Amino acid sequence: MKELVNTSRYLLKEGFLPIHIVGETGNIDHNTHAAAFKKSVAGIKYYIFLIDANKEYKGLYNFLLQKNVSGKDNVVVGVFFGEQTEELSAFTQVDFDAEAPIADVRWIADTKDKTIKTHPNTPTRVQGTEEAVRLGLNANEDGSLEASSFREIYSSREKENIKSKKVYLTYIIIAINAVMLLITGFFPTTEKLLACGALCGENVSEGEVYRLVTHVFLHSGLLHFAANSIGLYILGTRAEMFFGRVKYVLYYLFTGVLAGATSLAFSAPGTVSVGASGAICGIMGALFVFSLVKRVTVRGLDSFALALYVAVSLASGFLTEHVDNFAHFGGFISGAVIELIVRKVRDK
Q1: Catalytic site residue 328?
Q2: Which parts of 267-302 fold into alpha helices (H)?
Q3: Which one is catalytic: 8, 277, 303, 334?
């Protein structure tokens, strides 16, 4: 069955290892009746059983269970490939119990309408298995995907990860920046920027720590403001959608502060720094990790596109005068690291 074979390929890409194959050749091919895969994450063992529902699927499932699974902290996902029938639906209707030694999850991979059928009390996502099955159902004989199928699958994955459908915090941030630009003037002097909260090591050492936050909302002129507003519109709106408003604002402010701290640590004494670019690079880093780990596009931008955006942004800093590259690097790295930590904590 090509759907089973292709799903196996995608599971391998997700880091699962094959541990048992039932078929005529001992290999994963079109004659395979069932295949078992395993991956351990944070002390939990995940077993994925891919089973041809046109065969004796109940016996195959129990056989793989007895041969491969023992002890506690196990999650077993049985994926049954075939057309949905009453008997198959009844067999897959099991309640998920996360506290059981073997947490049982069963899905129907409907080869007719190319969708995953799940019981209401069953998880719909397990360590990327759901994505591997979707890809496997829609792949060609050679494992490749039609462009339209690829877009539809990743579009649905994208929608699943959206936290806020309505975006307005990004526009509020841009509006605050615009107000501050009007206060400082379109071509502000260094003295004016310092009076309004620009970042300077000497002032911070005297106790004016608030400048680590206020400098994020100031800009050195109209072009500086316009460039950062475009970056905020492109990346900020996406971050607000996929992270949610609270997480987005916390990321924006926290990475902005860390970007400013990096600038203070490495810039020459007396350097005056302003701008949202450090915080924007922080959002960029968080989105890059999010897209890479979740294997999802962010409103048309995948991890490769975001990496390219990062490379161009950082490289341009070396080609332009008066650009705080230390803040850009600090923002990007802090955003990426924070998102990685959040992901690790959630996985546990």
Answers
A1: yes
A2: 277-294
A3: 277
